[in-house]
Write a structure and sequence with these properties.
Length: 187
Amino acid sequence: MKRIILIAALLAFVTLGVNAQVFITKTGFIKFYSSTAAENIEGRNKTVNCAYDVKNNNLVFKVLNKSFEFEKALMQEHFNENYMESDVFPNSNFSGKVTNAKDIDFTKDGVYKVTVEGNMTIHGVTKKLSQAGTFEVKGEKLILKSKFNVKQADYGIKIPAAVAKSFNESMEVTVDISLEKMNIKQK
């Protein structure tokens, strides 16, 4: 399944120029975190598919919801069955563009501030997103980092009243993804 997603992401970029520069990974890292009086809630996912097309500034993420891991097995079960309904909504996605890509010198190592705008889909609900972060050019790698908050209610995720006090209104999302440079040549 992961290989199919990776191939689909690459095929999406086949319409690029002859020597298109794309950065890609299938081992990206995303976590979400919420601290409450009852307990901390943290889900970690180390199998995030991501691709960035330098020419068109397109950035895509695909996250398999069942790949989030939790400290407690019961949290993971509740996350997949009750909140994310992972059998119905198996993936979370982002598709957008880096709005200030002209400020990034992909030939020079360094950390560059970026703004990404696009559509994020979680739990079957798509919302516009504009978020700041950084791109670090490091040789043949591109490291993406960002931290932002997501409100569960914005994406139709219902928290039962019996446990609502155990949840914050929003979760802090951390993105830390290292992509490898690929050169795609068309025939």
